[in-house]
Write a structure and sequence with these properties.
single chain, 459 residues, mainly alpha, two-stranded antiparallel ribbon, two-stranded parallel sheet, 19 helices, elongated
Length: 459
């Protein structure tokens, strides 16, 4: 296919250069958006009298046919084409040799690719938001069933204080809910039409940018034509939001990987979301969680690619910007794939509540509550902290729990201990007394689940 810009040149482009210069393998994904933008542009050109109305109608009809034929496979996108814009225009001019040549009036590939990318990524952002909500829904369903499942809460990966699995999973819900909010904010800034910016300086034709923006579902138009074609900050923002989603997925993956191990045995993944070993028949590996953890670094690389691409290029458009699509498309598709698999993996996961409870009992995670008991009896917290720490050290030495100490043994460290101490440091009491907003008591977690449900019910 001859390049539509070749009139200025006396020699054909070297084949290797053409292949290096081509972006069709990546931007071919945007054929629907490219045609959608062209249809809106043709409607506007006809309505404004810039091209004859009958030509506009013929162009729109032919573009719709091309879209259907690409979708059905009747037309295969030519890998030798420079980009999707040239391919579609080439197909159009084959069908409409004269009228087809009018389509590119008052338009540049610079604003064309800018509008294509925004349309494509707007749809992908909606998919991401829906996928994040599905994940939050899965976490919510598992949490609802485990409001009384006691487990150790950790700091430094050391058993720290008692929580419930519901409380633990609600923390991830909060993270992913913020991720959804970031995506919605990103979508608002993305949903601005650059079409009509031309190559960089607009056009001398009496176009109606507001008309094309409305036809394409944009909230408005870019108010500066150079900015319209030369920035990709909305892609950086989307890549950043995707990277944060993957950060949260990776942290959850790490915990699931730990919890699946024989050392923890807190959960067991369904066979459909695990793999085995080619040599060790006893193995059941959490490969999905491991792959999600691994793919997180990939989305970080995509974000850095976009930032680095933009940091040194002057206004307006530069060919460097062709590198944006591969990075942002990979970022979005990787994140979508991970989200899509994660939700059903969680819903089919078996929770070993007994193992969680046993771990909670053996971790001295009621030591803070023991100190708080003494504080309520009148001892200053630092003094109570020392008594509790001394008792923990004694229990570690003897291999017993705090609850196993006799009252006489407790009173050796402080006369303030009484029979009610055992009730005060039981795990159930430790949990249910933590009623502050956001805490792990059943009452507090119930309120958290209500907040999550409100998020899920939003449209």
């Amino acid at each position: 296919m001859a390049n539509l810009w070749s009139a200025r040149f006396s020699k054909e482009l070297d084949a290797a250069v053409n292949d290096f210069n081509s972006s069709i393998k990546v931007d071919g994904l945007m054929y629907k958006e490219d045609i959608e933008g062209s249809i809106a542009h043709a409607k506007m050109l006809g309505a404004c009298g810039i091209i004859p109305a009958e030509d506009a109608e013929a162009i729109i009809g032919a573009l719709k046919d091309i879209r259907e034929e690409i979708t059905s496979g009747a037309i295969v996108i030519d890998p030798a084409a420079e980009d999707i814009h040239m391919f579609v225009e080439g197909e159009l001019t084959k069908r409409l040799p004269e009228a087809g040549k009018r389509l590119h009036t008052a338009r540049s590939r610079n604003d064309q690719v800018a509008v294509d990318a925004r349309l494509y990524l707007r749809a992908k952002t909606d998919e991401l938001i829906a996928a994040v909500k599905k994940l939050v829904e899965a976490l919510y369903e598992v949490a609802k069933k485990n409001t009384a499942t006691v487990m150790p809460g950790y700091t430094h990966l050391q058993r720290a204080q008692p929580v419930t699995l519901a409380h633990h999973l609600a923390a991830y819900c909060a993270m992913f809910m913020r991720d959804a909010s970031r995506l919605k904010d990103c979508r608002k800034r993305m949903n601005v039409s650059p079409l009509g910016s031309g190559a960089l300086a607009g056009t001398t034709y009496p176009i109606d940018r507001r008309m094309t923006a409305k036809l394409l579902g944009f909230d408005g138009v870019s108010f500066n034509s150079m900015d319209g074609v030369s920035d990709r900050d909305y892609q950086v923002e989307l890549a950043s939001a995707s990277a944060l989603i993957m950060t949260h997925l990776s942290r959850l993956s790490e915990e699931i990987i730990l919890w699946c191990s024989w050392e923890f045995r807190f959960v067991e993944l369904d066979d459909a979301y695990s793999t085995g070993s080619s040599i060790m028949p006893q193995k059941k590996n959490p490969d999905i969680a491991e792959l999600v953890r691994g793919k997180t670094g990939r989305t970080y690389g995509d974000l850095i690619t976009l930032l680095t691409m933009l940091k040194g290029i002057p206004l307006a458009y530069n060919k460097d910007m062709q590198e944006d699509k591969e990075a942002i498309f990979d970022s979005v598709e990787t994140t979508l794939a991970c989200l899509t698999l994660f939700a059903p993996m969680l819903l089919t996961m078996k929770v070993n509540a007994d193992n969680m409870s046993k771990a909670a009992l053996k971790g001295y995670i009621n030591a803070t509550d023991l100190a708080d008991y003494l504080v309520r009896k009148g001892l200053p917290f630092r003094a109570a902290y020392k008594v509790s720490g001394t008792l923990v050290a004694e229990c570690v030495k003897r291999g017993i729990a705090l609850n196993d100490l006799t009252l006489d043994e407790l009173r050796k460290e402080s006369p303030l201990f009484d029979d009610d101490v055992y009730e005060a440091i039981s795990l159930e009491t430790c949990l249910n007394k933590r009623t502050s907003e956001g805490a792990p008591s059943e009452e507090a977690v119930s309120k958290q689940l209500c907040i999550i449900k409100e998020f899920l019910d939003e449209r």
